Amino acid sequence: MDSLWAPWRSKYIYMRKHKRCIFCGKKKRDPAADKKAYLIDRSAHSFSMLNIYPYNNGHVMVAPFRHVKNLLALKADELADLFSLVRDCTKKLDRILKPHGYNIGLNIGKAAGAGFDGHVHVHIVPRWTGDTNFMTTVTDHRVISDSLDSVYKLLKKC
Asked: What pTM was computed for the model?
């Protein structure tokens, strides 16, 4: 078996042991921290950020500022704001990356595949016809063709 080295993932693995929520503490504007976290936009109750372990180029997560574990715990204005930001992020991705489609969804709870199951969040994954390749099929690895920094710069300009 060949090894695929990904030392940049160690931060994710070690952070998980401490169970620190990656979504909490994003309400306060801090340009340096925003850039480090790839935070794109804020609305009244929510924010968007690039997923630093993306399934595809432009993989964005949208979360409420308030730490709640599921949609039922959100107030009506928070829920409306969350999905308004999902819509706005999708428009921005359309303008910048021009995907052919999207996978948009939530993984609520560990059993559903949530990596951070205590803070509800929405995944927006841009998709292009033919964006899968032999690497995913044969080796269970994904090739991401753009860097987080380059996608972040494009989305922040828009």
From this structure: 0.80
As a whole number, the mean pLDDT across the chain is 85
Closest CA to 67 of 123, 124, 121, 122: 121
Under-70 pLDDT residues of the chain? 1-19, 132-145
Helix/strand number for the chain, H first, E second: 5, 5
Radius of gyration of the chain (CA): 16
Q: Using CA of residue 66, residue 123, residue 49, residue 76, what is the dihedral sign?
A: negative
The reply to whether CATH 3.30.360.10 applies to domain 22-157 is: no
Burial class (CB in 10 A: 0-12, 13-18, 19+), 42: middle
Locate the DSSP E strands across 1-109: 39-42, 46-50, 60-64, 101-105
Closest by CA position to 62, among listed 144, 119, 146, 145: 119
Looking at residue 122, what is its pLDDT? 97
Alpha-carbon span 116 to 60, nearest angstrom: 15
In the chain, the largest separation of any two C-alpha atoms, in whole Å, equals 51
